[in-house]
Specification:
By secondary structure, the chain is α/β, with parallel strands linked by helices. It has one domain: Metal-dependent hydrolases (TIM Barrel). The chain is 33% helix and 19% strand. The chain contains 15 helices and 21 strands. Helix 7 packs parallel to helix 8. It binds N-(aminocarbonyl)-beta-alanine and zinc ion. Zinc ion (ZN) binds next to loops. The site of zinc ion has 3 residues, from loops. It comes from Paralimibaculum aggregatum.
């Protein structure tokens, strides 16, 4: 059984051209003119792009005394509706501290539910012999990324020595450390200060997490990664201070990557000062939304290449769950949604406005992260032999974003009312149509697959070679040149 996507303009990270795409089973078989197949998918007056990869989701995450309400079923269907064909979810170890048991837990819940493909990042929330011993097996199972929370003191936060130990282990294993860069000690102190002063509403969330706490942590993580000799990926970069640290590191040849979120690119801190408590609380996430100057910095970073990926950090809690923080902002579950809207909002606010080219749009929504996570060109590419994860992207299919019609099961949408000019006409995951606009598509639980990612991406290999050439050497001294008497 073959399918041919006909009449579209293919857009990849490096060029755009008119061609058809022939799919056989799950794979792209040919790219060229006048191709034919058993079934035709119409791409006339549309673009054909690689399926989006969202490398930052927290579906069903247990967090802050509750569990994120977006399920793997609803989340992956929302992803398909928005043109995302792979997501990478964060696995959190449970009370027994075992990384391997945590993977089993995630497999048991996620795999029967997913409509599109899935990868995992593993969270390192402390340091022990057991974690050290289990990390190689985690990597063997296709999880080549380890996330470190520098915030959430008393819960997920790791100390510098723990982070250094884990980064060194990542260097040995060919894995990539990720960090949530916010100084958790400062956040805790500022939360206490604002609560004591009577600032208990969601605006206190923004006050207690200023850009300085993010900039400090980003700089610290970069230096720790450099000392450990490992590349570093900084999730949800929201401000100029963190971006500046990344730019500076990259300028020095360090392998550091930065990921802004679509929310930080388009929503600003005024959301936290909204008169309606629920409106403001629904937008509480960490880091918080920033002002226009920070947004401009993030957009510039995407165009300049100092920031490489746009993600969502989809951690969606219902309004009812947000009400856990009515008495004080520190108890509002942190997280927002975006999985369904990432591509459409980025296209409308980025490409339509001239901030990004269509090719840059593809780079930051799929290709760059596929390379960073070592799953390219199976994912993030339109080449023969790649998985047929493809989106027929219709630049004339406009809509107004609203919770009333979304596939996400959350009762609101932080992008409510935003007009988008483009959407998927079709989304294909490994050759299957998982979303067809206006055709009553349904979730297909269990058809998605776990995608293992091998260790030692090429940037890691290069850095290892460089570090071993320049590593400290022991100096053999003539005993006569060593003073005696100590
Ligand atoms: N970002 C956020 O507020 N919630 C999800 C957990 C995290 O990534 O920090
Ligand atoms: Zn985070």
């Amino acid at each position: 059984m073959t399918k041919v996507i006909k009449g579209g303009t293919i857009v990849t990270a490096d060029r755009s051209w008119k061609a058809d795409v022939l799919i056989e089973g799950e794979t792209i078989r040919a790219i060229g003119e006048n191709l034919s197949g058993d079934e035709v998918i119409d791409a006339s007056e549309a673009y054909v792009i690689p399926g989006g990869i969202d490398p930052h989701t927290h579906l069903e995450m247990p967090f802050m005394g509750t569990r994120a309400a977006e399920t793997f079923t609803s989340g992956t269907f929302a992803a398909a509706a928005g043109g995302t064909t792979m997501l990478v979810d964060f696995v959190l170890p449970g009370p027994d501290g075992s990384l391997l048991n945590a993977i089993e837990d995630w497999n048991g819940r996620a795999l029967p539910q997913i409509s599109v493909d899935l990868g995992y990042h593993m969270a390192i929330t402390g340091w022990s012999e057991q974690i050290h011993a289990e990390m190689p097996e985690v990597v063997k199972r296709g999880v080549n990324t380890f996330k470190h929370f520098m915030a959430y003191k008393g819960a997920l936060m790791v100390e510098d020595d723990e982070m250094f130990a884990s980064f060194q282990r990542c260097a040995e294993l060919g894995a990539l450390p990720l960090v949530h860069a916010e100084n958790g000690d400062l956040v805790a102190a500022l939360q206490e200060k604002y609560m004591a002063a009577g600032t208990t509403g969601p605006e206190g969330h923004a006050y207690s997490r200023p850009p300085e706490v993010e900039g400090e942590a980003a700089n610290r993580a970069i230096m720790i990664a450099d000392a450990a000799g490992v590349p570093l990926y900084i999730v949800h970069v929201s401000c100029e201070q963190a971006h500046e640290a990344i730019r500076r590191a990259r300028q020095k040849g360090m392998r550091v990557y930065g990921e802004p979120l679509i929310q930080h690119l388009v929503l600003d801190e005024r959301e936290y000062f909204h008169a309606d408590w629920e409106h403001a609380a629904r937008r509480v996430m960490s880091p918080p939304f920033r002002d226009r100057g920070h947004q401009d910095s993030l957009w510039a970073g995407l165009a300049a290449g100092s920031l490489q990926v746009v993600a969502t950090d989809h951690a969606a809690f219902t309004t009812e769950q947000k009400r856990m923080g009515l008495k004080g902002f520190p108890s509002i579950p942190n997280g927002t949604g975006g999985l369904e809207d990432r591509l459409a909002v980025l296209w409308s606010k980025g490409v339509e406005s001239g901030r990004l080219t269509p090719e840059e749009f593809v780079a930051v929504t799929s290709t760059n992260i596929a390379k960073i996570l070592n799953v390219y060109p199976r994912k993030g590419a339109i080449v023969e032999g790649a998985d047929a994860d493809l989106v027929v992207w219709d630049p004339k299919l406009s809509k107004t974003i609203t919770a009333a019609t979304q596939k996400s099961i959350i009762d609101y949408n932080v992008f409510e009312g935003i007009e988008v000019s483009a959407q998927p006409r079709y989304t294909l995951s490994r050759g299957d149509v998982v979303w067809a606009h206006g055709q009553n598509s349904q979730p297909q639980p269990g058809r998605g697959r776990f995608i293992p990612r091998p260790a030692f991406p090429s940037a890691h290999k290069a850095l290892s070679a460089w570090k071993s050439l320049n590593s400290p050497r022991r100096i053999e001294r003539d005993p006569q040149n060593i003073p005696s008497g100590v």
